[in-house]
Amino acid sequence: MADVMQQDSRADQRRAALGEGMDHTPPPREGAVRASERHSARVRFLRRAIIAGCTITISIIAIVALFDPLHHLPHGISVDDVGVEGNVITMQSPKISGVRQDGGAYAITAAQGIQDITKPNLMELRGLDVTMGMTDNTSSHITADTGIYDGKEDHMSLAGHARIKNTSGYDLLMQSAVMDFKTGVFSSRERLTVTVSGGTISADQIDITDNGHKVSFAGNIDSTFDPPDQPDQQEPLSQNPVEIR
Length: 245
Fold this sequence. Notes:
The chain is built from two helices and 16 strands. By secondary structure, it is α+β, with helices and mostly antiparallel strands. It has two domains: about 1-65; about 80-245, lipopolysaccharide transport protein A fold (Sandwich). It has a 16-stranded antiparallel beta sheet that branches.
């Protein structure tokens, strides 16, 4: 038994001596193979990243082409700054210009424009200011708190303290109105007041057609006019305004 134990001990000593003398460093060829595998992995990763980047870029271009926010707006539009948040595009100081069918020019400006890219032909304009040239060589200045401009149909709805002031002398005040830039037709279906030289007219509705040459009132119409000036040698007909209902 003792002989067997001695033999085992000597065998263990020989194995230990052999283990201490062995070099466990991988041979050069094995290290080169691992380096090559790491390089191939990096190449595959970069290739996938490039393909993914190209795919994302193409998708963005397709989305922009599909939901181009300015696609349906006139070519004469310009903005100072543009911001995007979700589906909403905000434009600072938008300006839109164009020419009506009768050749009269118009210019639309606003403090701010807001547009939903899912409705690319519509733009909400805040702090609205419009100038329109008329065929009789006069011009109209139009203001409102807000306006919804349809670039496809080229018409706009006004809301909030809407006003039209023409250089010929009339001043129209209303709460809302609709105007068509192509035809020059203007209408309002809320109570309004028109001030002209020598008097005022109030009505429930108004329609302005024929590029401003034809004005029609409807509903409850009240009008008040001052009497015409009389020669000094004649007695005035009345000292009070004449009211026509």
